[in-house]
Amino acid sequence: MKVFVTGGTGLIGSAVVRELLGSGHEVVGLARSEGSAAALREAGAEAVRGGLGDLDVVRAGAAKADGVIHLAFSNDFSSPEALAAGVAEEAAALQALGEELVGSGRPLVTVSGTPWVAGRASTEEDPVPTDGPVGGRGRSVTAALALAERGVRSAAVRMPRTVHNEGSGGFAGLLTQIARQSGVSGYPGDGSQRWPAVHALDAAVLFRLVLENAPAGTAWHAVDDEGDAVRDIAAVIGRRLGLPVQPVPEETYGPLGPIFAADQPSSSARTRQALNWRPQHPKLLDDLENITA
Questions:
Q1: The sheet that has 194-199: what strands, in order across it?
Q2: Which CDD domains match (predicted)?
Q3: pLDDT at residue number 133
Q4: Residues with Cβ < 8 Å from 41, sequence gap 6 or more?
Q5: Domain layout of the chain by residue ranges
Q6: Please, what is the Cα angle at 292 between 286 and 293, to 5 degrees?
Q7: Are 201 and 259 in contact (CB under 8 A)?
Q8: What's the CA gap between 281 and 163, in Å, rounded?
Q9: For domain 165-196+226-266+283-290, which architecture applies?
Q10: Residue 175: which of 104, 231, 115 has the closest Cα?
Q11: Whole-number mean pLDDT of the chain?
């Protein structure tokens, strides 16, 4: 299968590209910079220059492919305005990808976060939120799944709050970054709130399985750790960096503060059973031992 991939040089995307190539697929990656293009070519993929905002390039990539995996996002959480701009850019690109595939029966695999449900772990049957700081992403993914009614084999892989590899990535990675800057390994509230997690290499396998096998209009959970307490995550970070571990105000985390403070465990039981997905790489707390001061 010839697969068009956006975001193919990030933590998740680079793992997905290697997984696809290693399984016999061809990959064409959208490259925003020459550095990204070089990384894609070095991995064995073809690169086309452009960003998510270059809708003609995005459409052309989808038109020439047997399937699409969309992973790109601006990841600018510096302000509510920057976050909103990234959400809007992604929405337009995802709409363009979907419209190009209408009536073709080809797969469109997109990404979202796992939902949070009060009092229990969320499951694949729970809807993603469509309000709040990242509600726009939920609306975009919901619209993409609805393309199943228009002849697109659309599916969503829901990612946990931390996707990690060698101690880097996701919300735990942001905690590490902020700890380095502030001199404190902090957490909001009492730290008992739980975050799900997955190793990037395990997530990459799931993206391939969904691309190859998932029915139209379905959502899947790339979750290995159902929920690690944030204070436990902060404790490992603090020990590895030699920093004090303590609660900090929710506002420390800007527009992500309410999400950082939320208890949001998630299950992948249905995903594992239906797609025979079996995570094999280190869990989050073990992987954070790779952090160096």
A1: 162-164, 194-199, 225-229
A2: SDR_a7 (cd05262)
A3: 67
A4: 47
A5: 2-162+197-225, 165-196+226-266+283-290
A6: 135
A7: no
A8: 12
A9: Alpha-Beta Complex (3.90)
A10: 231
A11: 95
Measured at the alpha carbon of residue 251, what is the angle toward residues 263 and 158, in degrees to the nearest 5? 40
pLDDT digit string (tens) for 7-31?
999 999 999 999 999 999 999 999 9
Mean pLDDT over 190-215 rounds to 98
User: pTM of the predicted model, to two decimals?
Assistant: 0.93
Report the top-level CATH class of 2-162+197-225: alpha beta
Sign of the C-alpha dihedral, residues 258, 260, 264, 270?
positive
Distance CA 146, CA 102 (A): 11
Structure token pair of residue 210:
């969904």
